[in-house]
Amino acid sequence: MPFNYSIFFILFLFLFFPQCTSQSQKLDDSIIPSPKREMRAVWIVTLDNKDFPSKPNLSVTQQKSELRSILDFHVRRGINAIFFQVRPSADAFYKSKYELWSEWLCGKQGKSPETDFDPLAYIIEEAHKRNMELHAWFNPYRAIYRQKKSSIAPNHITKLQPNWFLEYNKQIHFNPGLPEVRKYLINIIMDVVKRYDIDGVHFDDYFYPYKINNKEFPDEITYQNYKGKFTNLADWRRSNVDILIKTIHDSLQIKKPYVKLGISPFGVWRNKSEDSRGSNTEVGQTCYDVLGADVRKWLENGWIDYVAPQLYWHIGHKKADYKELVNWWAKNSFNRHVYIGQAFYKIRGEEGDQWQNKKEIPLQINLNRSIPEISGSAYFRAKSLMDNYLYVTDTIHQKYYYRTAMIPTMPWKDNTPPETPQNLKKIYTEKRVILKWETAHTTLPQEKAVYYVVYRFEEIDKKDKDEKIIDKLDFEDAKNIVSIQRETIFYEKLSDKKYKYFVSAVDRLHNESKAIEVVE
After folding, report:
1. What is the fold, at CATH topology level, of the domain defined by 39-399?
2. What is the value of pTM for the model shown?
3. 109, 193, 220, 359 - which has most CB atoms within 10 Å?
4. Cβ proximity of 396 and 388 under 8 Å
5. Per residue in 103-160, pLDDT tens?
6. 247, burial (CB in 10 Å: exposed 0-12, middle 13-18, buried 19+)
7. Which CATH architecture has domain 422-517?
């Protein structure tokens, strides 16, 4: 019988390179189980009525209904955080004494909602009812989205302070190089922080604008006036944005240190061809070189709490491979959280497009979970998940988000858990088991319990003893969690099985107390 070189080669690969087989399985159908803690965020876009409201001039009743529907849809599918766009274009989706109501809310810039309605206050309240974090999403530098179509009021900031602005690509931008612009923007953001119970301040990728047709942003005069010791325009621009980010970080530490600061940058910091620290990518524009956003520096210096890079490419992309970039951001996280921004909006089933593959997003989630430094995902955008293209939303819920997840902790902000719940009681009725408890009293706001985790363990008979024991008693396994809630009462139907219940308290930064058993 002749020697089969093909079989010998396959066996050689299998025996000496087993990691190849293992890695290919990770990018196939092997689902990594749902973890106990994982950020699962979604962006709600207000710009141009993309997600909310569905159109301008809805009644307040309709606007409230739309917001509740968006939150209900996502919380039922495992989402636990919202990035809500509160300032799409030097305007406001909240009550502001500095900026005007957005044209996308009531159809005309400056027009107030009926009945004194405040969308930001309302969505914060409704999100917290559902135990979801609410991050206020600001576009700091965009002032007029579309010059010819936008509704611009006579008392808009571009009219009151025309010297603060520059025109580029048919849009009007704040000039980041002006100290008075920075002071104004910081004041706008901190005003929201002081007056609203938000969980985070969030910026996306729009710092200095993306370059169009190799045309330069027209800030040369500002550079000459304010460059100081800088001899390079790009370095000066990055310094301007650095000052903004660091000042906001420092201001949060003074006013509300529990409020998180997060950035969702363009997915490539720098190409390796430009910087040995960069990623193995070949994109034309990067955060660092064009947008003036040295996000890696902000992470290294601890100026931001999380980064959600927009990795809107598929696995295997020739110039920006998703897998390459996930690993790059993981290696450059500097012990801050990384939530991967994923392109849900691209799933449209277009023929010949890689995104027609309904497994793309699930494979990306699986890859994210295989890397310890990746703490979750953020999806762009709300309506895309609700449209459920190719039933991918259903697939993710059924296979990946079938269990509710807690949001990861940030020990650099706070690592002290709240006091354990008190006066825990278990009551049986004919049809239900009811658990009740009370919140521990504390004078320190940062140690106050905000929500609770209910654990359930099945009792089994130990063969060599008559006593009952709890199977494993693993509080880190998500399968043992039956509820994550803000109420201090829990009930479920009676079962033939016997269970032991435990309850823990969790503060707003998700530090968890010891779980206490509920007794009859």
Report:
1. TIM Barrel (3.20.20)
2. 0.93
3. 109
4. no
5. 999 999 999 998 899 999 999 999 999 999 999 999 999 999 998 888 899 999 999 9
6. middle
7. Sandwich (2.60)
